[in-house]
Design goal:
The complex is a heterodimer of chains A (about 130) and B (about 140).
Chain A: H1 2-20, E1 26-35, E2 40-41, E3 46-47, E4 53-61, E5 65-71, E6 81-83, E7 92-98, E8 103-110, E9 116-127
Antiparallel strand pairs in A: 1-9, 2-8, 3-8, 4-7, 4-9, 5-6, 5-8
Chain B: H1 2-12, H2 20-30, H3 41-48, H4 58-80, H5 83-95, H6 106-120, H7 125-135
The chains are: A mainly beta (about 130), B mainly alpha (about 140).
């Protein structure tokens, strides 16, 4: 009986994960330089290929930071989202309901005590 | 061969000591553009400039805008029945544009390959989606 319940629970969890993360979900690690109080643009372009999906970020190392997405070709960007000093941070949504084929880049700035710093984390896109 | 030479220049970058505007102008001049669709370079520099004008960000901005330019050129040529221009643009869409997304952007690489295949089959939908999503407010020269 316990085994059956365990299998059912695994199935439910699997279904939930499958719902939240479409087959085309994408992710990668981030390592970036930071400046205190000043936005730093990062040069890696990533493409949204599933319309209506979102971008999420977390931080695994580094000071408190602000993060935002921006369109690599200019003209549009998201609002700043703060990631606290305690690591790892929860995964937070920094943009939502993107149009398919949008090419986005990331920017970050530090709220730590050092003039310059670094951070590490992860970015997920094509995610519901 | 010409595509390969241009790509090598593009990947290597052409940084100058005069900051982001010169980086954009220098890299732009090494790239292949359609004769009928070119960006307003000063407007592009203004729209994409990093906060402190530092170099290193021209490549991805120009890659997206160059992709939009070839997509727009191909779509316009097909619409007006200009088979010669359409074939030239399709060649760039297939052999140049597909090399822009970085290795880590697998979804992006698949998208541009799929867009090229669909354009070759006469389907403009992915090409138009890309332009609408990334260049709807780009100023063209």
């Amino acid at each position: 009986m316990k085994k059956k319940m365990f299998v059912v629970a695994l199935g439910v969890i699997g279904a939930l994960v499958a719902t939240a993360m479409p087959a085309s979900a994408s992710s990668s690690g981030i390592s970036g330089n930071l400046r205190k109080g000043t936005w730093v643009h990062y040069g890696t372009a990533r493409t949204i290929t599933v319309g209506g999906t979102n971008i999420y970020v977390n931080k695994t190392d580094g000071p408190e930071i602000g993060v935002k997405w921006r369109r690599c070709s200019g003209g549009a960007e998201g609002s700043e989202v703060r990631l606290q000093n305690a690591d790892p941070t929860p995964r937070v949504r920094i943009g939502s309901n993107f149009r398919a084929s949008t090419v986005f880049c990331l920017s970050a700035k530090s709220y730590g005590s050092n003039t310059t710093d670094t951070w590490n984390g992860n970015v997920w896109w094509n995610v519901n | 061969m010409r595509f390969v030479c241009l790509l090598v220049l593009f990947v290597a970058g052409c940084a100058s000591p005069d900051g982001y505007p010169d980086e954009v102008r220098s890299l732009y001049s090494t790239m292949r553009w359609p004769s009928d669709v070119r960006p307003d370079l000063e407007a592009l520099i203004k729209a994409t400039a990093p906060p402190d004008g530092e170099q290193g960000f021209a490549r991805q901005a120009l890659a997206v805008v160059n992709t939009c330019a070839w997509y727009r050129s191909w779509d316009a040529a097909v619409t007006r029945g200009d088979t010669v221009s359409a074939a030239s643009a399709l060649d760039a869409i297939t052999n140049l544009v597909t090399r822009y997304p970085p290795e880590g952007d697998k979804a992006g690489r698949e998208f541009v390959r799929d867009a090229a295949a669909k354009a070759a089959a006469g389907d403009p939908a992915p090409v138009r989606d890309y332009v609408d999503a990334n260049c709807f407010d780009t100023k063209w020269a």
